[in-house]
Amino acid sequence: MSTDKMFGEYGGQFVPESLMPAIEELTDAYERYVLDNEDGFMDEFRRRLADFGGRPLPLQHAESLSERYDTAVYLKREDLLHGGAHKLNNALGQVLLAKYMGKERIIAETGAGQHGTATAMAAAHLDMPCEIYMGETDIRRQRPNVFRMKINGAEVNPVTTGRGTLKEAISETMRDWATTVENTHYVIGSVVGPAPFPRMVRDFQAVISEEAREQVQEKAGRFPDAVLACAGGGSNTMGTFHHFVDDEGVGLYAVEAGGSSLQVDEVEGVAPNSASLSTGEEGVLHGARTKLLQDSDGQIMESHSVSAGLDYAGVGPELAHLVDEERVEAVNVDDDSALEAFHRLSQDEGIIPALESAHAFGYLEEHHDELGDVVVVNVSGRGDKDLETVLEETEKRDLDVAPDMSVLRDAAGSGGDL
Amino acid sequence: MSTDKMFGEYGGQFVPESLMPAIEELTDAYERYVLDNEDGFMDEFRRRLADFGGRPLPLQHAESLSERYDTAVYLKREDLLHGGAHKLNNALGQVLLAKYMGKERIIAETGAGQHGTATAMAAAHLDMPCEIYMGETDIRRQRPNVFRMKINGAEVNPVTTGRGTLKEAISETMRDWATTVENTHYVIGSVVGPAPFPRMVRDFQAVISEEAREQVQEKAGRFPDAVLACAGGGSNTMGTFHHFVDDEGVGLYAVEAGGSSLQVDEVEGVAPNSASLSTGEEGVLHGARTKLLQDSDGQIMESHSVSAGLDYAGVGPELAHLVDEERVEAVNVDDDSALEAFHRLSQDEGIIPALESAHAFGYLEEHHDELGDVVVVNVSGRGDKDLETVLEETEKRDLDVAPDMSVLRDAAGSGGDL
Amino acid sequence: MGLERVFADGPAFVPYVAAGDPSYEESLEYVEALERGGADVIELGLPFSEPIAEGSTIQEAVVRSLEAGMTPDRYFEFVEDLDVDVPLVCMTYYNLVAQYTNDETGERGPRAFAERAAEVGIEGFVVVDLPAEEAGPLREACDEFGLDLVFIIAPTTKGDRLEQMREHVSGYVYVQARLGVTGAREDVSDQTEESLARVADWDVPKAVGFGIKTGEHAERIVAAGADGIIVGSALVDIIAAGADGEYPFTETAQRLESKARELKEGALAGAEKRAATEQSD
Amino acid sequence: MGLERVFADGPAFVPYVAAGDPSYEESLEYVEALERGGADVIELGLPFSEPIAEGSTIQEAVVRSLEAGMTPDRYFEFVEDLDVDVPLVCMTYYNLVAQYTNDETGERGPRAFAERAAEVGIEGFVVVDLPAEEAGPLREACDEFGLDLVFIIAPTTKGDRLEQMREHVSGYVYVQARLGVTGAREDVSDQTEESLARVADWDVPKAVGFGIKTGEHAERIVAAGADGIIVGSALVDIIAAGADGEYPFTETAQRLESKARELKEGALAGAEKRAATEQSD
Ligand SMILES: Cc1ncc(COP(=O)(O)O)c(C=O)c1O
Ligand SMILES: Cc1ncc(COP(=O)(O)O)c(C=O)c1O
Fold this sequence. Notes:
The complex is a heterotetramer, with 2 copies of chain A (about 425 residues) and 2 copies of chain C (about 280 residues).
Chain A: E1 6-7, E2 10-14, H1 20-35, H2 41-51, E3 59-61, H3 63-69, E4 72-76, H4 87-100, E5 105-110, H5 114-125, E6 130-135, H6 136-141, H7 143-151, E7 155-159, H8 166-180, E8 184-186, H9 197-205, H10 207-220, E9 226-230, H11 235-241, E10 251-259, H12 276-279, E11 281-285, E12 287-292, H13 317-324, E13 328-334, H14 335-349, H15 355-367, E14 374-378, H16 387-397, H17 406-410
Parallel strand pairs in A: 4-14, 5-6, 5-8, 6-7, 9-10, 9-14, 10-13
Antiparallel strand pairs in A: 1-2, 2-12, 3-4, 11-12
Chain C: E1 12-18, H1 24-37, E2 42-45, H2 56-67, H3 72-81, E3 88-92, H4 94-99, H5 110-120, E4 124-127, H6 136-145, E5 148-150, E6 152-153, H7 159-168, E7 173-176, H8 191-198, E8 206-209, H9 215-223, E9 228-231, H10 233-243, H11 249-280
Parallel strand pairs in C: 1-2, 1-9, 2-3, 3-4, 4-5, 6-7, 7-8, 8-9
Helix pairs in contact in C: 1-11, 2-10, 5-6, 9-11, 10-11
The structure holds pyridoxal-5'-phosphate (2 copies).
One pyridoxal-5'-phosphate binds near residues 114, 233, 234, 235 and 380 of chain B.
């Protein structure tokens, strides 16, 4: 076992044998193209990230929040990336890599639909046939994204097993891959899965912190005291942290979805949260040893979060390692806090964040006085995809910060639901 | 009448007397802050466009389209601007100007909802109370945008007069303004309305061509033979053309919505298109003399286009003038062609354009062999807001290029409509 | 000597209705009822599809009239068909003026419009979206055909603009009582007196409009110095009630006539009050 | 001498079912029925919540078993309760091995798991998501407790990987007949012969699985050189039909038994055929 498959004791390659050759092939391609820039792969990747993706993206001084918290708050604007989330950094990298590897077909799983849309966009851009697996529950709660994938020419395959969310979609994509591995690349959507995925996805996403680290020095004249990013699988998290890891004074906060509660229901096998870093135990899922939401037997729990993109029982192995090493602090906020933060950022800064990203802002609200003078928060995506969910969940909760939506109902007449 | 209220014989200030003082005040502010950069207004505007808006935006070489048409096609990616359309360039400029002018309240009209969302975002960003007027028909066909405005803290006032589209919304906003003019700025959404709006909005949008003109020289090593932009009111059009106007060899094409037909129904007062440049007559609407869709008596027609943002019976006076001068060519494509182009760009380039922008690509498809070797097309916005409309309109038409959407219907079960 | 003459003998009552609302025939009767009620000048609206300065009452009147088939040509016929002796002012929006075409000569625009208006006996214009700056061509046409061009002074009109309008105005000056759009209100705006004060030394009569609803409003406004009151929405509300079938046609005409009388009497009472105050000063 | 022994006397029939599917009691009977039908080794699935290598047939079996309350501890009880003489292999996913905790000692992980498995009489493991690279700790534990660790050779396993696995494997090698996930198929994959050829000179027995459905498939595969056949989904389909109420419980047991017999006989026929071919070569 070569050490670079591991992050401390996390990581590895726990996959059926039929996938191992593909993973070896991928490891080789990763080393050659990504690490060694063979055939100018990384140059092409960066060029496409700029021209197609819109990079570099701003680090914006957030005036209202800075005033509210008496702290210089900077927003890393991944919501402005083509497709509306940081996900394209990785999807574009992997689809391009698949092309360099001579693959003819792309598959991917998606939860919130953001990775699916990013992959569908990248595949359309690079002219690769593409199929996306998505749980039926997620299809229902993220319909606009389903639509976008189809519009981009991808197939969307509904996954009906389990609770029909991200975990099941990953499993189903692995099944497809086991069958088609010879001509197909599996574009995994976060820093999870068997090596080399966690490292590779992190490297594609590291452009976030590469830019942010320079930008914050330029704008604030110093390093930040804290960097916040929400953590589902952890790709935006690791992307936002990576280049800060060696900067000792910089606190790194991975904000997980606390859902409705941190307690688990062992009997039902349900965790009403997705806080695997905060509450999970070491185990093996989807190809890697990492922290998991599991029962004492090792059966994986159904996670739950109001934000589909955080709704995952595992987390990237590198992040698990960095938390164990106390380099990253694993924290979490609950659904209510995320929803309130969603409305706050929308109203006070004019930026509608993804519900995922809103978690980071929920943490900022709750702990701003412990974070120091300069704080960078990653806005991992925009919230257009979450409008339906937010309407529904906000009404359930009767939140103070929520706007009055009656104009939408009044005009619903001939239009149908939002 | 000072000539700079006019563009040839177009333009002017045809408004009720109660608005004239505000318009004079605005003219003064425009000259001082925008033209003379007083108090560093333009510096602040540009800084905010960068940090909040995400500028500069790429000029992307479109590989598939270039191959399809055997022409170097470049896309100006305004779809990547914060909010999802070029509209923020103007909204941010005007809301900031209102702040410099000491106004306390913002009102705006919206058709597609893109100008409304941009204004709501800018107002939230700059902490200005904001109300948006929107026709009831448009509220129904652009629900996600209504939602976004509300989420950003704006009020949305439904307009029930007439057919409930952009024309009525503008009229209603002018009524509000006539009442509140002392403390309120009306952020008009395109290069229309009384002077100084057409010039001022153009100046805010001209950043598009300022960037594109440099970028195309860098990427293509020369000036383009043709520049294409869709035209509703004409703000993205003028923004995309402005810095090319003096470059004689560059053909400028304003692509209007041909709707279902260029014929009008005089009896019903309905034009099944919004092609005011191509088919309209000189007249006075919403404060300016320009080309209009009107009947022989001078009553304004109801326009129609599958894309709400082009659905307007007037057009900016400067554009009318440039068409008369033969500097700009007024062309149009019909609903079908726009829908097909929407699917084509989505599938071939991985960019889901706004239905408005899709018109420019419809024209490219139909006339690519007459446009020369290097063509710049403005992607004025992204199509997320149009998903419902496209689903509906595509199904009606049974288009070849459209994807199969059954997965959405199958999973609709407990979810409701898209 | 144009429209100024009607203000000579005491405060003028100037009603507004949209011609052809809710139908050609009914509208003829309504206009005549207003004269019976004491109108001194009638502002007769030529409806435009985008009435940006009107509140919902007049917007709806415009829709009713347009739907009943009103056009500029029909409008001029309407004026010819009217059996009233008081002067008529055509109130409209500029695009209808700009597009008007003389079918015989083919001439188009303000001159053709003014010529035809004069022919049917109209004595002046109020063009809502035509500020003094843009009024050159119509002003010329009015001069040629002996018509008055009435301008509106808004509460926001001050300084240079005010001076400039003073030069252009003729017939009477329309003093807009408050900011905003047309529509009957429950109160008299505080802005009214201020506005009147700003034009106090102008030598044209001052007619105040926007929001006047009752005889009592009329009285207060005339007492405050107005030479006339312009009332639209309060009258159009009565027509709307008739159009909605709340009252039969003849009753609607009677209601209009008595509302007109109430307003005219209010104006007269206001004039007496003012005379009294002026004497006591 | 471990599991190899069962392949000594002719082709082995190796059925797979999920323990506890659809209930503890029924499942005990089903396993016994398989033995009666001629099973030589039984791969008994310990169900994991994320069965990433299974097709829908076995996925659903896993869900039925988990919903009926199967856990690793219950699984070991199940094995103890079973009244069969043939060797049992535990087929599962690695997380259940890694998390397994010996309640008495508190020891957790592969060693605790292997110890308990050996205790109840299990003779080997197939851990679907544990490639040779990650198998160190479990390999050690197997050695300690005298268990076989069976690896799967996929159609994609070639070159160095193949050599490496040759060294680690014991009991038998599980030759995956085709790419993809488990599930009964209508045909025999062309990849089977190729795969067998790649391991022809290995000295462990070769059992072929994935997609075998009928006696005729079994025959062809054994004729092609396999020492055994592994059949899961085709049997689980019968259990599923029973669980769905299509057949009463006893009939389901009989159907399983006769399916087993069909497969075993197919394998035997294949062995004869091969012997015949080998002679004629
Ligand atoms: C906007 C956004 N942020 C964050 C996430 C969580 O993923 P990760 O933790 O890998 O960044 C998602 C996943 O869909 C997402 O869409
Ligand atoms: C994306 C987009 N493009 C174009 C337009 C048309 O406006 P304009 O012609 O002023 O650019 C709109 C208007 O809403 C729009 O949303």
